[in-house]
């Protein structure tokens, strides 16, 4: 990994970045409000986090607020990318991803008992925030702790970069594949309950596989972009 990448001049991208940095905060905050952190912490301390049901950590007290805020965010972002496609590197991929996500979140809207599914998947927006922040707050691609770079900027860059890579690995490459196991179990339970595998929950393992594939693709793209060096980039 070769460090920060210098960004080219792109006003559309910069405006889109700051929109996301602001708009994602209420989405992330409301999502976290729906989880029982105490249950999670106790399970983590007892090394039983993988044994503890994800469903059991979800209380969904502000699910409706979370759902509508998330829907509004994705609709606004879809419109932004359609009107200003230069604001992202791969507008086609982003639009497909957002449209699939919008369709996905209608399952917990129709079946609120599966709100945990939306909450668990939307944890990925924590990583998205750090991805955008590392670009927006260091457009020149300054290397940490080098001549001309202030100590505080170096600390800020190191913190954001560290959180980005850590959350990328934990959320996209660990939590998402793990969720496929949980989701498949829920689909089997629903199939047994209604007497057929063709039910509303049947789409969830398929969609989760799509998102896992995209995460793997973006991981490869990330590694390749880092190995290319410090050239100008439009960003992910």
TrEMBL record:
It is found in: Membrane. It comes from the Eukaryota. The keyword Transmembrane helix applies. GO terms for biological process: lipid homeostasis. Residues 57-224 form the TLC domain. GO terms for cellular component: endoplasmic reticulum; membrane. Its main location: membrane. InterPro entries: TLC-dom, TLCD. It is a multi-pass membrane protein. The keyword Transmembrane applies. Keywords: Membrane, Transmembrane, Transmembrane helix. It holds the Pfam family TRAM_LAG1_CLN8. Signal peptide: none annotated. The chain crosses the membrane at residues 18-45, 66-83, 116-137, 158-180, 200-220. PANTHER family: CT120 PROTEIN, TOPOISOMERASE I DAMAGE AFFECTED PROTEIN 4. This is TLC domain-containing protein.
């Amino acid at each position: 990994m070769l460090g920060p990448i210098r960004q080219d001049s792109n006003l559309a991208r910069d405006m889109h970045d700051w929109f996301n940095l602001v708009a994602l905060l209420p989405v992330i905050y409301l999502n976290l409000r729906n989880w029982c952190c105490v249950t999670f912490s106790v399970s983590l301390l007892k090394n039983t986090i993988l044994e503890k049901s994800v469903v059991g950590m979800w209380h969904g007290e502000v699910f409706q607020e979370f759902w509508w805020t998330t829907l509004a965010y994705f609709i606004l972002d879809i419109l932004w990318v359609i009107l200003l496609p230069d604001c992202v590197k791969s507008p086609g991929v982003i639009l497909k991803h957002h449209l699939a996500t919008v369709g996905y979140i209608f399952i917990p809207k129709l079946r609120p008992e599966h709100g945990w599914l939306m909450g668990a998947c939307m944890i990925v927006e924590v990583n998205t925030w750090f991805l955008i922040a590392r670009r927006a707050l260091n457009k020149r691609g300054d290397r940490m702790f080098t001549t001309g770079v202030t100590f505080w900027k170096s600390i800020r860059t190191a913190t954001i970069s560290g959180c980005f890579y850590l959350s990328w690995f934990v959320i996209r490459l660990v939590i998402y594949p793990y969720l496929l196991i949980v989701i498949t179990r829920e689909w089997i339970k629903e199939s047994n309950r209604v007497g057929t595998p063709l039910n509303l929950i049947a789409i969830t393992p398929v969609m989760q596989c799509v998102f896992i594939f995209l995460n793997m693709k973006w991981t490869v793209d990330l590694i390749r972009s880092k190995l290319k060096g410090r050239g100008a980039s439009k960003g992910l």
